[in-house]
Amino acid sequence: MQICTLEDAMKKEFKVIRSFNNNVVYCIDKGLEKECILVGSGVGFNAKENKPLKNEDKVEKVFYLADENNKYRFAGMSKEIDKDIVGVTEEIILMAVKKLNKDIDERIHITLLDHIAFTIDRYKNGIDISNPFLAEIKSLYREEYMISLEALQKINDRFNITLPVDEVGFIAMHLHAAVNKQDISRTAQSTTIINEVINLIEEKTEDKIDKESIDYVRLITHIRFALDRVEKKIPITNILLSDIKEKFSQSYNLAVEISKEIEKVYKIVLPDDEIGYLAIHIEQIFRNAHKSY
Q1: CATH topology of domain 184-288
Q2: According to the model, what pLDDT value does residue 63 have?
Q3: Which stretches in the chain have pLDDT values below 70?
Q4: N or C: which end of the chain has fewer CB within 10 A?
Q5: Residue 164, φ and ψ in degrees, nearest 5
């Protein structure tokens, strides 16, 4: 995704395709003959379709969708979905780009828009919105989570609704996927696996893990990067593996059981070295909690 700054935008001429709200406009860059999304406070004020844009000085960011399929999908969705939902989605994307200070995958303009529109529709139809992975998302994607808290407030204020805090987790996953240039389904799968690992540990030990503890954060962070290493085929060596098997036998056996479940359900094989590190984290959690299992 190509991003244009205020300085660049001031030198360009734009023709309005569609105005979503006072802060978001869909335009043609007349020089490049490309569609683009302009975002900035007041940029869409009094913007008229098929007329030149008059508020170039209000532009904070110009997003160009490079992929033809993404351009086609955004053009279609932005016609069908309530323009105010399109507008608030783009304002959230701009907020994320500014706060994260990173380039993000252009698919976010489609995936986040689709998600927010679907969520608002579910809410208005009285369908419960719950997120069983909220604790894991809050710890794993802290920066994205904090931005998503602001995004939720913006949505609720704009539409006079009360989406629950569970929605923060879903928005955070979309932002994390966009920052890491990965499909949202992969982020969702990793989060699901981590949640299931935590549930399995709690089930086998018959005790609850403190979701606010540093050991919990270290555990789920390890699982997240372990899954990433396995996907990318990045090997690691665990020189302590023999000692772990001997000294932390219960934690190691539990880690083996967890790895077998991951392999069975998701066809993801954790190497023995990774299992050893997982065992260390399991041992640490229950040692610090003064628990015996």
Answers
A1: PTS-regulatory domain, PRD (1.10.1790)
A2: 95
A3: 1-11, 289-293
A4: C
A5: -75, 165
Dihedral angle sign, alpha carbons of residues 183, 72, 29, 31: positive
What sign does the dihedral 166-158-83-101 (CA atoms) show?
Answer: negative
Whole-number Å distance between alpha carbons of 164 and 76: 29
Coil, strand or helix at 150: helix
The pLDDT value given to residue 288 = 74
pLDDT in tens, 43-58: 999 999 999 998 888 9
Architecture of domain 1-64: Roll (2.30)
CATH 1.10.1790.10 segments of the chain: 67-182, 184-288
- We find that the CATH architecture of domain 67-182 is Orthogonal Bundle (1.10)
- pLDDT digit string, tens, across residues 49-87: 999 998 888 999 999 999 999 999 999 999 999 999 999
Angle made by CA atoms 75, 153, 145, in degrees to the nearest 5? 85
Give me the residues paired with residue 65 across strands: none
Phi-psi region of 25 (alpha: psi -120 to 50; beta: other; left: phi over 0): beta
Output the pTM of the full model. 0.85
Burial (CB count <10 Å: 0-12, 13-18, 19+), residue 281: buried
Phi-psi region of 104 (alpha: psi -120 to 50; beta: other; left: phi over 0): beta
- How many helices and strands (H and E) does the chain possess? 12, 5
Residue type, 251: S
Number of other CB atoms surrounding residue 225 within 10 Å? 15
